Amino acid sequence: MSQILSDKVVLITGASRGIGRAAALACADAGAELIITARTVAGLEELDDEISKAGGQATIVELDQSDHEAMPRLAQAIGNRWGRLDGFVANAGQLGQMAPMPHIDSEVFERTIDINLVSVWHQIAALDPLLRRSHAGRAVLVSSTVAHGAHAFWGGYAVSKAGLEAMGRVWAAESEQTNLRINMLNPGGTKTAMRAAAFPGENPDTLPTPEDIAPAFVWMLSGECTSQGERYRAADLI
Ligand SMILES: NC(=O)c1ccc[n+]([C@@H]2O[C@H](COP(=O)([O-])OP(=O)(O)OC[C@H]3O[C@@H](n4cnc5c(N)ncnc54)[C@H](OP(=O)(O)O)[C@@H]3O)[C@@H](O)[C@H]2O)c1
């Protein structure tokens, strides 16, 4: 792959497995230095090894999205070390409970909104100044098909992704006069643990893999992506 992200520092949340992991590998392959977060340190270490073996560089940050106070600390550490952030991929997410709206467990509903939406706001608040310091900052908020329309039983997950897209559009509108570009990416059905939990009867081999769609992230984080507040489908970018 061309070094389209060379000299860029890119933060990817939820990189211990699935789409975030593949996106991190593709970004490293394209020349970016990675900051990778998740709760599962073993998964991050494996990814770090793989990136190092391929000649890239990554920094592991054990981070639970529900720990809102960790976000300004993370931003401060990034600011101290690099002085800027060139790319932010808000990828970490949870499916929550698939059930009729009135039957969802209240704690699960609140947690799903917190992990998929509120925590991302905390990250935006903490990281926006660093992204503005980049000469071409890029943010990619990972959304879903169920953010639009009416998808029965998708519960707090659908609500959180609709909110995430609204938040991204507002942030994008406010950033029009800056070098920062903020866009949303709908990966589409992808062969991961989350997809298997949502569709247990599906043959996963019929789906694109995270590696198949990872180039979409690379392009959206590059200077070639100049749109603002757009919603892309990975299938249209690969
Ligand atoms: N797969 C699909 O078909 C599909 C379709 C549309 C949208 N998406 C979106 O794509 C993104 C990635 O999903 P995926 O399919 O790759 O799911 P996945 O395989 O379940 O991976 C989810 C990632 O999020 C992290 N995460 C979950 N809860 C977290 C928490 N509380 N704190 C920190 N990290 C947390 C996980 O790491 P730890 O467990 O180690 O913390 C993991 O790295 C999600 O935003 C999802 O909504 C996926």
Second rung of CATH, namely the architecture:
3-Layer(aba) Sandwich
- β-strand percent reads 5-15%
Helix/strand structural class: alpha/beta
The radius of gyration computed from the alpha-carbon positions, rounded to a whole number of angstroms, is 17 Å
Distance from first to last alpha carbon: 13 Å
Uncertain segments are none
Descriptors:
238 residues; 15% strand; 7-stranded parallel β-sheet; alpha/beta; globular; 7 strands; binds NADP nicotinamide-adenine-dinucleotide phosphate
Overall description:
With 238 residues, the chain is of the alpha/beta class. It has a single domain, classed as NAD(P)-binding Rossmann-like Domain (Rossmann fold, 3-Layer(aba) Sandwich). The chain is 45% helix and 15% strand. The protein contains 8 helices and 7 strands. The protein has helices at residues 18-29, 41-53, 70-82, 106-133, 155-174, 193-198, 210-221, 234-237, and strands spanning 9-13, 33-38, 57-62, 87-90, 138-142, 181-186, 231-233. A 7-stranded parallel β-sheet has the order 3-2-1-4-5-6-7, sandwiched between helices. Strand 1, helix 1 and strand 2 (33-38) form a beta-alpha-beta unit. Helix 3 packs parallel to helix 4 and helix 4 packs parallel to helix 5 (155-174). 46% of the residues are buried. Bound molecules: NADP nicotinamide-adenine-dinucleotide phosphate. Residues 14-20, 38-40, 43, 63-66, 91-94, 115, 142, 144, 187, 189-190, 192-195 line the site of NADP nicotinamide-adenine-dinucleotide phosphate.
